[in-house]
Design brief:
about 90 residues, Multidrug-efflux Transporter Regulator, Chain: A, Domain 2, two-stranded antiparallel sheet
Length: about 90
């Protein structure tokens, strides 16, 4: 095997690993924010958290979750028109 092919495989492996580390499941997000599945669904529906669909799966990107958190003043449970976003 040539060095360039080996290098390409290593680069692809690193990229795949990086992507896997950046992906969160619904369960991951519920555990991070200590929220119920219903609350997560409401946040998704209201656009509080960005999410992605692939086939029948839903996933979140860590970078986007952090950005969403920053955009909401450090808390996603921020008061919104007198009620919580939940």
């Amino acid at each position: 095997m040539s060095d360039s092919k080996s290098s390409e495989r290593t680069d692809k492996s690193l990229l795949i690993q990086e992507l896997k580390e950046n992906i969160l499941t619904r369960k991951d997000v519920m555990e991070i924010f200590q929220i119920s599945q219903v609350t997560l669904w409401k946040w998704m529906r209201k656009g509080v958290l960005r999410y992605h669909n692939m086939e029948k799966s839903v996933f979140f990107l860590k970078d986007e979750i952090l950005s969403d958190l920053r955009n909401n003043g450090g808390s996603l449970r921020k008061r919104h028109r007198g009620s919580q976003i939940e």
